[in-house]
Amino acid sequence: DPRYGGIDARFIDVLERGIDYTLEKYSDQPRVAGVTLMSIGSTLSTLGDLDRAEDVLLRAYEFRQQTDGVSARELSFAANSLGMLYKRRSDLRTAKRYYQESLEHARDDPNADDSTMRSIAATNFNLGRMLLSMGEIDEAEPYMLRAVELQRQYSPDDEQVLTFGNGGLGELYERKLDLESAEESYRQSLYHARRAFPEDHPYVATGLV
Asked: pTM for the whole thing?
């Protein structure tokens, strides 16, 4: 309760008290602790306190893994949150590990709905683009291909998503010197960009170069 900190209580202090309270009261209830710490950790990350967010999200992931009957979706989300955090910290090797763990958990989800599949597509895309930035082109390829496959299947009307997905695939093929495949992917990206943005938008102009 922020009232206990007086009128000058900072939101970050309220979150810290929430962490302490959760660990004190619910360490023997991993589901409650995991859900609560995941929420607080995500908030800390949004606020830019990445060091503290890392500590909290790692504890949340540990509690998730200790929870009886935890779903593959919950584990995938927790691992993906860590992947995004480490990417923001430019710790790409660790980000890669958690993105891959997220996808491994997702493969164990027999009841994945369309929303979950769109999230899986985004994780594949983010991991593929990150691997490209690391120069790991061959390793990036299956993730980029899977991302575009899922985008076409589960986001067929999301022109922006299809713009970025096909554009990323075009960049991959260009760096592999497979210029024919790169041209086809770039054409697909431009097609969707023209449906998503006005003609003078940078994404359209870039596609016309």
From this structure: 0.88
Q: Measuring CA to CA, which residue among 145, 141, 142, 151 is closest to residue 118?
A: 151
Q: Between the CA atoms of 94, 96, 101 and 106, what dihedral angle is there, to the nearest 10 degrees?
A: 150
Query: Is the separation of the CB atoms in 51 and 66 below 8 Å?
Result: no
pLDDT by residue, tens only, the chain of 209 residues: 444 445 445 888 899 999 999 999 999 999 999 999 999 999 999 999 999 999 999 999 999 999 999 999 999 999 999 999 999 999 999 999 999 999 999 998 888 899 999 999 999 999 999 999 999 999 999 999 999 999 999 999 999 999 999 999 999 999 999 999 999 999 999 999 999 988 887 877 776 55
For residue 113 the two structure tokens come to 């709905």
CB of 118 within 8 A of CB of 150?
Answer: yes
Task: Tell which residue, 161, 169, 95, 164, has the closest CA to residue 134.
Answer: 95
Phi first, then psi: what are they for 62, rounded to 5°?
-60, -45
Give me the phi and psi of 29, to 5 degrees please.
-125, 80
d(CA 193, CA 207): 8
